[in-house]
Amino acid sequence: MAIAGFPDANSTGLPSGVIPTPSGDVTVTQPGTVIDALDVKGTISVQADNVTIENSRITSSDWTGIWIKDGVAGTVVKDSEIINVGSSPNGANGIVGSGTFLRNDIHDVENGIIVTGSSLVQDNYIHHMNAPNVRLGTSLGGPHYDGIEIDGGVSDVVIRHNTVINENSYVSAVMIIQ
Fold first, then answer.
1. Is residue 1 part of a domain?
2. Of 24, 82, 108, 147, which residue is 20 to 30 A from 164 by alpha carbon distance?
3. pLDDT tens digits, one per residue of 77-135
């Protein structure tokens, strides 16, 4: 159900007219790299500062679509679609790390965004959370779906004007552990 003025499929993800170039896994080690208009089948691993990922589609079956390594600063992920079809038994996450996350369409994941450090999470659309092959997360052995997750020890996080639709039970739209 869309609410007027809040992020949805029409205001997030790949901008109209963008045709991304096919790619496999991407590992970024050069500071200041800009990834623009890629169709990644795999994971983007960000291991350098000031990396921008924009106008891209990431379809992963590993534990995360975009992994921003601990200690990396200045990452921006915007105007992208992130899908994690959940074939990993260890989790199926959209984005894991810290940075600025703007206007992304994140779906078919166990957890949309796991924030691990100072971050801005704004204008994202997180929906259709689905990770049937994940076996971790609950005492029942299945996934614990969270739109946005912060697992303690993290500060300087702004979560603003996102739409999180979580149709599952034993879940949260936003989970913050102190």
1. no
2. 24
3. 999 999 986 666 667 899 999 999 999 999 999 899 999 999 999 999 999 988 766 65
Where do we find the tokens 């206007």? Answer: 103
Give the tens place of pLDDT for each residue, 4-62: 789 999 999 999 999 999 999 999 999 999 999 999 999 999 999 999 999 999 999 88
Give strand pairing partners of 137.
none
Terminal-residue alpha carbon distance, the chain = 31
Does residue 14 belong to any structural domain of this protein? no
Residue 163: strand pairing partners: 125
> What is the count of structural domains for the chain?
1
Please list, residue by residue across 20-55, b when 16 or more beta carbons sit within 10 angstroms of its beta carbon and e when fewer do: beebeebebeeeeeebebbbbebbbbbebebbbbbb
Q: Which domain holds residue 134?
A: 21-177
Cα–Cα distance between 17 and 79 in angstroms, integer? Answer: 13
Residue tagged 């109209």 (tokens)? 16
CB-CB contact of 80 with 104 (8 Å): yes
Using CB atoms within 10 Å of the CB of residue 85, give its burial: 0 to 12 exposed, 13 to 18 middle, 19+ buried. Answer: middle
Distance CA 160, CA 121 (A): 6
